[in-house]
Amino acid sequence: MKFIILLPVVAIIVSSLTSCSSVSISNTGNSRLYSGELSETDVLGLTSASPTSVSAHGKWSSPRSGGRILLVQSGAMMPDPALLAAFERRFDVVAFSGLKSEYTTRSSSELKGETIPAARKMRAAAAAAGAKHIVCVWGTVDSEDVEHATKAVSWVPIAGGIVPDETEHMRLSLKAGVIDTTSGRWDSVSHYSPVTKSVSANLNRSARRTQHIESAKETGYEDLARKVARG
């Protein structure tokens, strides 16, 4: 008697799947210290009656090359190494915390429960450090992941893990608020990177994403620092 083993035929239908995300430059590595962003309004010391542009503040003195600045990255305890390096090539930099929690503690004299504005804390720290300007940087990494048809076989152990099965499209957006320590007058500069792409496989996805983000940051930070230096 012969036994015939029938193997089931599995039809795999692959559709192109896309997922999008937007994260802070201070939370690209899922930092445990990240607690949100500083308010731009509070950092710049704005109120409803404040002028909306530096021209409305009157005379403006931009940071000079070699001058001392207080550098803050919103949402981070310390500025990213690449951000720090870009500004240190042009200024004498004093790094300062941008953690939201650092600006939500209350002083003993604030019996009414009002928090100390970030602008006041930063300007006091900058004055104590001899920094004539404060530069606070905000940024987001926007990405879109598109799955390839090869996603159907990338689950195969070992061999499947090295099959390129996903393309990540990414764009970096940066903004720096530049504040005069003495007067509180401010200006802002921005950087928007072109969309770049990176192809990855299951085994190297995390490393490729990190490399992709860090490359965009390095280029973006350099451009932002150059714009601040130009005034």
Give your account of this protein's structure.
The chain is built from 4 helices and 7 strands; from the N terminus they run βαβαβαββββα. The protein has helices at residues 40-43, 81-88, 118-129, 205-230; strands spanning 18-24, 68-73, 92-96, 133-147, 164-180, 186-192, 196-201. Strand 5 and strand 6 form a beta hairpin. Helix 2 (81-88) packs parallel to helix 4 (205-230). The relative contact order is 0.18. The model is unreliable at 3-15 (pLDDT under 50).
Sequence-ordered SSE layout with sheet pairings:
Blueprint: E1 18-24, H1 40-43, E2 68-73, H2 81-88, E3 92-96, H3 118-129, E4 133-147, E5 164-180, E6 186-192, E7 196-201, H4 205-230
List keywords for this structure.
231 residues; alpha/beta; seven-stranded mixed beta sheet; 4 helices; 22% helix; 27% strand; elongated; disordered N terminus
Helical segment tally?
A: 4
Number of strands: 7
**Helix/strand order:** EHEHEHEEEEH
Residue-averaged pLDDT: 82
Percentage of residues in strands: 25-35%
Fraction in helix: 10-25%
Q: What does the largest sheet look like?
A: 7 strands, mixed
Which structural category do the helix and sheet elements fall into? alpha/beta
The N- and C-terminal alpha carbons lie at a distance of: 90 Å
CA-atom Rg in angstroms: 24 Å
Structural shape: elongated
* Uncertain spans: 3-15
